[in-house]
Amino acid sequence: LYDALDRAEDLLSQSKFLAGPDLTLADVRLFTTLVRFDPVYVNHFKCNIKLLREYPNLWAYTRHIFQVSGVSEVTDLRHIKNHYFMSHGTINPLFIVPAGPCRTIAEWTKRLQEPSGR
């Protein structure tokens, strides 16, 4: 996992999107994983070696795509967190939904809305 994130981080240091200057389906597919990484994967799947926010290019890329017209409107962060933490009983038998990476969904959304510089 982290080797792939490192490769994507390097690629995005040289290119606005994965395949060049234009947004493609590959970017949309990676975004759906990245937007879930810190709020869900870090705790739920124990992917806690490095946070998305510690990858400058991946973090900026995620914020940039989140800010594309229409994307934030269809990215329901509350639903994403609740779905993962409330639907995998073998991983989370007490169905506990952690508060992080921010105290509120609104605070996390605000961070995603910060200028990406891309």
Structure in words:
The structure is a single chain. The protein contains 5 helices and no strands. By secondary structure, it is an all-alpha fold. The mean pLDDT is 96.
Bulk shape:
globular
Give the strand tally. 0
- By DSSP (H or I, 4+ residues per run), the number of helices equals 5
**Share of residues in strands:** under 5%
* Main sheet overview: none
Q: Low-confidence segments, ≥5 residues, pLDDT <50? A: none
| Mean pLDDT reading | 96
Distance between the termini: 24 Å
Structural class: mainly alpha
Quaternary class: single chain
Alpha carbon gyration radius? 14 Å
Summarize the structure.
The protein has 118 residues and is mainly alpha-helical.
Task: Give a topology summary.
Layout: H1 2-12, H2 25-44, H3 56-66, H4 77-87, H5 105-112
Helix pairs in contact: 1-3, 2-3, 2-4
For the structure shown, list the relevant keywords.
118 residues, single chain, 0% strand, mainly alpha, 5 helices
